[in-house]
Amino acid sequence: MISRSCSRKISPGEYASTVRSRLTERKLLFLAGIYTLAGMLALYLGAAGSPDRQALPVGLATISAFLFVSMYWHFTGYRGDCFLLPITAFLSSTGLVFLFRLDPAYGERQFIWLLIGLGALVLTTRLFVDFRFLSDYKYIYALAGLIALVLPIFFGHEQGGAKSWLNFGVFQFQPSEFVKILVVLFLASFLAENRAILTAGTRNLGWIALPGPQEWGPLAAMWGVSLLLLVCQKDLGAALIYFGTFLTMVYVATSRIFYVLFGMGLFMTGAAASFYLFAHVRARVETWLNPWPYIDTTGYQVIQSIFAINSGGVLGTGLGLGYPKYIPAVHTDFIFSAICEELGLLGASAVIILFMLFVFRGIKIALKTKDDFTALAASGLTALLGLQAFIIIAGVTKLLPLTGVTLPYMSYGGSSLVANFILLGLLLNISHEAEGSL
Amino acid sequence: MFAIYLMAVRYVFLLLLFLSILRLVKWMVGDLRGASPQRFMEVQPSRHGRETPSSESTGGVKMVVIESSAPGLKPGDTFGAGREVLIGRGGGSDINIDSSFASTRHARVYLKEEQYWLEDLRSTNGTYLNEIRVKQPIVLANGDRIRIGEVTFQFVR
User: Fold this and answer.
1) How far is B150 from chain A (nearest CA, A)?
2) Angle at Cα B111 formed by Cα B109 and Cα B112, nearest 5°?
3) Does the structure's ipTM exceed the value 0.90?
4) Residue boundaries of the structural domains of chain A
5) Is the CB of residue B148 less than 8 Å from the CB of residue B87?
6) For B67, which of A236, A375, A417, B102 is 20 to 30 Å away at the CA?
């Protein structure tokens, strides 16, 4: 494995640009390190009540781990994008600082998961560096994804209204986090193969050219099954993300707005149907439209979140001076509200800007690619991450009905963190290949 | 006094976040400016392009690139036309257009009954003959312009 990337011929100019981009990356990671240490220092000095002696060493270890990854890439001549890792470092260290501030026990576990995530990132950039071979196994992804989604229905247990967890005693595992990546790879591979037919259409329905059932059949079947599963598991947030990513990728592949409009129509119908069919969906929507009558029950969480955001103001109360613990699940889904409260509008917009920069780099990588599969995979992975961030931020600020998904890289949760680092690794591999072929 | 220090550290934390984002954006903009013209400088030689198969050409029929912003093709490049020329993206085609506008099998020019015909192979973005989209095979005349994405060829007989 090691010999593969080292033995590849690297021209001097290419090598220089690799070194330069890794240098940029390290400078930015260094900034992220100073930022993390400032936050950890505040906690160390007792910003959150009692001084936290572990905060500083953990901050140092975190940033050294990120720098170590960058150094490793430097020595193996890896040409992946130099901005994505620093952006991720800012997001995950902000998350880590806030988890230590909320509860050092969460912080410690998140730190371990972060190290595992970085390990997964290095492994991904090592094993899957030759990205294109992944396109050959699309039905394996579909199968693996289905199994991973079905397992929790039989063996899983319900947590926070969603039955999507597998319990392994020592730790719990949420397969749907990983299934998302499999879905993107499946769709990218499938759409790349059938792009021309889906675009042109083989039969005409009035003035709309439609592809035949053998082309859209597998897509629709895959779709129906996964949506059904998600409804059974009550994991509405994930269903929304899957659907949004699906539409984005179909649009990227075919550039036909008809599919998007049709998909949105389908989604609206589905949403309306589930509103009348499922009590938990109805409760969510009613809570969203007017949470005040439910302040003691279902509306409690979102109202506390809004209170927290309001009390933050522009500059925030300062790290450790707010009362984010009144919000249930503040360490996972609602971490953004805690950031709003303690870092204010400024801190919250910084987080949103970081996600936007991530998406920007992702789209840039997709534009640089040379073939359909990698272009679709890059745009799909980017859309996945962007949509997930948008849906949960919109949920906690009451812009959309609340759906329980994690804020990528920031929320507490091992599955989510590791899955998102794998996603980052895949995106970096695509940019590595795009840079290499220039 | 200690409380003041603590407050300072808290706001330094927020300030550093913004300074870092500024730096990130600045370097990204630099990357965007610095990198984009370079992309076109480092031309990737196309695998099948620019080799004029003179042995196959019949009666000096040529396709000359007169406009192109795709890498690997530049104005003046000439391709001889044999019995059939497949235009598309990727190694399988005779004229390789390395551009996202081109489909893998985009169009073909072929000889039938002493005439050269242009056929669009259900391409995504279409093939244009003298700026009119080609819907069915059409006979080519000397001087016709064939446009695929951002590449325009002139058909010379």
Assistant:
1) 16
2) 125
3) no
4) 12-436
5) yes
6) A375
